[in-house]
Write a structure and sequence with these properties.
It is built from 14 helices and 20 strands. The protein is of the alpha+beta class. The protein has three domains: 19-245, Deoxyribonuclease I, Chain A; 250-302; 377-418, no CATH class. InterPro entries: Endo/exonu/phosph_ase_sf, Endo/exonuclease/phosphatase.
Length: 449
């Protein structure tokens, strides 16, 4: 468990020669319960393109091999011990720090210009004791002290304060917890429902914050986007500015080392003399910074800079699915506005449309990698990198073949087959074996007897 008594997030050393920084005035969070749906989890990429969140807080995500499946590899993720609550940080979130993970919750800390902010995702099943989750949250809040905190949780608790027409025992326990911890509830009484399923509505998704100034700077909104889940997206915007630092990465695998050494050698004597003449700590720090600048300038003249894509394209969500999604949203609005006589008819149409869209989205997602492999012209292109780049580089195959200087794909494949399945050179008659005796065939008279 991480302690936060002496915890302080420091800004990275930002030298103008080696880094670039951008500052955003708002920090955006997205909250949703994904109901263990594969398609709902995969469409988080589309939601991130529309709303540009820094952090996504999820409950009941689709899990495969102990990780949230269907999201880009560049997104960092943390899960609770029961895999029911998770936090996803996007590349726009600068250096998040993982605090701890309990059975029903997970906590993350990010740095803002106004100070550190702790983000917590939690989930409590309606069939389990809610006090277990509340006790875990109480323990985390006690360690944090007076720091800013944002809690996004699906607690399955009913209360009139956040929209329900009735109140149950779980709702009363959550209300007592809010009062005891001095937390502010972002949910509004007259807000749209965060959960809809076949005519049933609910408000189980809650958002709490700690800190008076933080509470006044936050906005909370239920989005009408179609999510492929029974729950809706919740968008939280806070007036917290973040600085994003980026460091250039040079391509050193394509040559250019001699040029770099030539540019560096022009100032080697000057740098060595400056280091030798350093008598104090400040002089040595100046010499070190000058050395860093010189190395960076030499690398910049000799190597190319690797480019990173902060925005990832969704290669399986096509125009046909987008049209059907908009039709579904229009039908959903018509269902909500219709009277009781036509409501049942529209609900049946809505359920059929939802099943059709879900079926086609699953088919498109599962066939996307096959289509990518079919269309590629380079066997060691994107499909290869996505699967086996880190495990079996192409150079290993040529080492097995004796590093041939010529040949085509077919000849390489035949050589690999020969290495895997070498031809047998065993004699026709094994040693110490006697030949079989050729007996005459059985005649019809023998069969009759």
């Amino acid at each position: 468990m991480a302690t936060t008594d002496n915890f302080l997030l420091q800004h990275p050393p930002h030298h103008q020669h080696s880094t670039s920084s951008t500052t955003t005035n708002n920090t955006t969070f997205l909250q949703i319960n994904l109901r263990k749906s594969e398609i709902a989890t995969s469409t988080l990429l589309e939601a991130s393109d529309s709303h540009n969140p820094s952090i996504i807080l999820v409950q009941e995500p689709y899990i495969l091999d102990g990780k949230i499946a269907g999201i880009p590899r560049s997104w960092n993720q943390w899960l609770s011990k029961n895999n029911k609550a998770g936090i996803i940080s996007l590349p726009s979130c600068d250096k998040p720090v993982f605090l701890q993970s309990t059975v029903n919750s997970t906590a993350l800390k990010i740095q803002t210009e106004q100070g550190p902010l702790t983000v917590i995702s939690a989930y409590s099943s309606p069939y389990k004791n809610i006090m277990e989750t509340l006790q875990e949250l109480h323990s985390i809040l006690t360690d944090l002290g007076y720091e800013r905190v944002l809690i996004c949780a699906d607690l399955n608790a009913h209360s009139r304060i956040w929209g329900y027409a009735n109140e149950d025992t779980r709702g009363a326990q959550v209300e007592d917890f809010l009062l005891a911890q001095q937390l502010y509830l972002l949910n509004e009484t007259n807000s749209p429902p965060t959960f809809e399923h076949r005519g049933r509505k609910g408000w189980p998704d809650l958002s709490f914050i700690k800190g008076t100034d933080f509470a006044n700077s936050c906005t909370w909104k239920v989005l009408e986007d179609y999510t492929h889940s029974d729950h809706k997206y919740i968008l939280i915007e806070a007036l917290l500015s973040q600085s994003h630092y980026s460091y250039p990465r040079f391509k050193t695998a394509y040559g250019g080392h001699r040029r770099m050494l030539q540019h560096l050698g022009q100032k080697t004597k000057q740098l060595v003399q400056q280091i030798e003449e350093s008598n104090t700590k400040d002089h040595l720090a100046k010499a070190k910074e000058e050395l860093q600048k010189t190395i960076f300038a030499a690398c910049r003249k000799a190597y190319k800079i690797k480019k990173f894509k902060l925005k990832i394209n969704n290669n399986w969500w096509n125009q046909s699915l987008q049209i059907k999604k908009k039709e579904l949203q229009a039908l959903k609005r018509r269902t909500n506005k219709s009277e009781d006589d036509n409501k049942l008819k529209y609900q049946l149409q809505l359920s059929k449309k939802q099943a059709e869209l879900k079926r086609e989205a699953k088919k498109a997602k599962r066939n996307s990698f096959r289509n990518t492999c079919t269309k590629t012209t380079d066997p060691y292109g994107r499909p290869y990198k996505a699967l086996v780049k880190n495990k079996h580089p192409p150079a290993e195959l040529f080492k097995q073949l004796g590093n041939p200087s010529s040949g085509d794909t077919k000849s390489f494949a035949l050589k690999i087959l020969q290495e895997l399945y070498p031809p047998s050179h065993s004699p026709a008659t094994p040693p110490n074996c006697f030949p079989l005796i050729q007996e005459p065939q059985i005649t019809k008279n023998e069969i009759r007897r």
